[in-house]
Design the sequence.
């Protein structure tokens, strides 16, 4: 079963880390990702640029608008993801807990829906 580990960080907490701590955490995170990839658990991972670089696209009543930055105001911002394969959500949560970003935000663990099953159901 596939799970998406969505990493959210609080920029205030990141900025409050002692000098060099972010780089130390990032290095550990990358090593952990390498271990998980070598074990066939980590399928993909990416880090996102800062929210200020984002654009949000919204269509309402036939009119489309493109807004600068993230649409939702939030203390924590979506910073990146890890797509993993795990036998169940408990194991996926254990893996999420092994990354350091729960200290400066949170990691949402969500099962990935089988898109091929959806495609078959809707006849696409």
Sequence:
């Amino acid at each position: 079963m596939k799970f998406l580990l969505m990493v959210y960080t609080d920029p205030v907490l990141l900025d409050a880390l002692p000098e060099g701590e972010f780089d130390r955490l990032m290095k550990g995170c990358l090593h952990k990702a390498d271990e998980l990839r070598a074990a066939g658990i980590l399928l993909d991972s990416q880090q996102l640029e800062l929210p200020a670089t984002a654009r949000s696209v919204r269509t309402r009543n036939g009119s489309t608008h493109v807004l600068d930055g993230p649409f939702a105001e939030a203390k924590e911002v979506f910073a990146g993801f890890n797509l993993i394969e795990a036998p169940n959500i408990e194991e996926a949560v254990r893996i999420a807990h092994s990354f350091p970003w729960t200290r400066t935000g949170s990691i949402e663990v969500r099962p990935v829906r089988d898109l091929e099953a959806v495609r078959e159901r809707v006849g696409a």
Summary: The first strand starts at residue 2 and ends at 9. The chain is about 30% helix and 35% strand. The longest helix spans residues 21-38. Residues 60 and 66 are 12 Å apart (CA to CA).
